[in-house]
Amino acid sequence: MLECVVNISEGRRADVLDALVAAGGAAVLDVHTDPDHNRTVLTLAGPGDAAADAVRRIAAVAVERIDVREHRGVHPRIGAVDVVPFVPLGDSSMDDALAARDAFATWFAATHGVPSFRYGPERSLPDVRREAFRALLPDIGPPRPHPSAGACAVGARPVLVAYNVWLATPDLALARAVARSLRRPQLRTLGLQVGDAVQVSMNLVAPATLGPAEAYDLVAAATPVVRAELVGLIPRSLLDAVPRRRWAQLDLSEDRTIEARLARAATRPRRGAAVETRERRPGGGGPTDVRFRRRRRLRPQPPATAHAAGGCGDARARSCRPRCRTSRCWRARTRGSPRAPRTAADLFGLTGGRATLGEEQIGIDPETVGVVLPRLVRSGFVRCVHLVPQPPQTPRPGCHRLLHGRPRNLGHRSLCSVRRIPHL
């Protein structure tokens, strides 16, 4: 089994991020997105060639959707698919990772014309960043960058931990000085301005020797810190080496291990997969927003709007019987009770015509919710919903299908099961 922690130079456009995650399929164990870095880290793993196949699909989407000439972000990069490291897990060896590295670099150059720089036994990733297209030419592919996708650093390495520590003093010069003082063979560091805050961004190259706790303490000894942030996943052995009482301080948990995510992936239902996506709000040291996305393979439907009445008022739908689910009519019910919500704002979590939950949390476009769903509610009871195609001249993305089912409890809200289809 191989792990691949692919770094993509995109962290702001939700439609592109959704397409990248969907391309990864069941091999995606974790997604970490940072809008200030304008970067997304997808952790892939699986038996056989699952990770290698998934990273090729992700790379194809990235080349199609990302133009590095328009990229703006604080993290250094050389291409749209910036870094693709292969990591041996379980019974796999470094030779297996090297073979996967070379195969991906050859495929990327032959299929998309993107040059690749190898790193691993030959050189380190910092060497590639410093010398690419200067003292160092690509190992595979054309001698100049792709016009829109740039180049790619493809590597084979042991397990590495990416870790950020946020400083209490928002001084970039201080962050860079701390990063410089801590830099060593086992610890690669950068001082970065992230919104109104600063961070020391680190790669723990030998985490068994210098792990997250030691890295955090080194930064905290130099200057006061606000919080820590784990990027991606860590092996269970590294988590066990840290006292449990420090897990929250260091942004660690049992669910953030490679082993836990592989076990979860093995029990996913065939029709969908819940992927944890950690997305930090732009502007600095705000908490990471953890969301669970349900991915399903569904047939795209035309853009639609919804309307409802006291029954099946649409003349184009014959009746509101269960068989009409095969046409353009789906039922959505909420059962009445003394505690049932009575307004659209209570039922769908809307405030002032806007959704208080994010798109991934409720499964449908917040703007569409704010415009359409209040019309569906009549005293907290929705009898029938029709999806009617819009005229071609007024396309609008958003809610495409409501799934028949019992209300789903979201804290103090009651919400019908909702199925989301990617925007057209």
Give the arrangement of secondary structure elements.
Blueprint: E1 2-8, H1 14-24, E2 28-34, E3 39-46, H2 50-65, E4 81-88, H3 94-112, E5 116-119, H4 125-131, E6 152-156, E7 161-167, H5 172-182, E8 187-194, E9 197-204, H6 212-222, E10 225-231, H7 236-240, H8 258-266, E11 272-280, E12 288-296, E13 304-307, E14 329-330, H9 344-348, E15 350-351, E16 354-355, H10 359-362, H11 366-372, E17 385-389, E18 401-410, E19 413-419
Parallel strand pairs: 2-11, 4-6, 5-6
Antiparallel strand pairs: 1-3, 1-4, 2-3, 7-9, 7-10, 8-9, 11-12, 13-17, 14-17, 15-16, 18-19
Helix pairs in contact: 1-2, 2-3
Q: Mean pLDDT, rounded to whole units?
A: 74
Order of helices and strands: EHEEHEHEHEEHEEHEHHEEEEHEEHHEEE
Helix fraction, binned, reads 10-25%
Distance between the termini: 35 Å
The proportion of residues in beta strands is 25-35%
Can you count the helices? Answer: 11
Tally of DSSP β-strands: 19
Query: Which of globular, elongated, flat, extended, rod-shaped describes the shape?
Result: globular
Strand order of the largest sheet: 5-6-4-1-3-2-11-12
Structural class: alpha+beta
In the predicted model, the low-confidence regions spanning at least 5 consecutive residues are 270-274, 287-424
Radius of gyration: 24 Å
Largest sheet: 8 strands, mixed
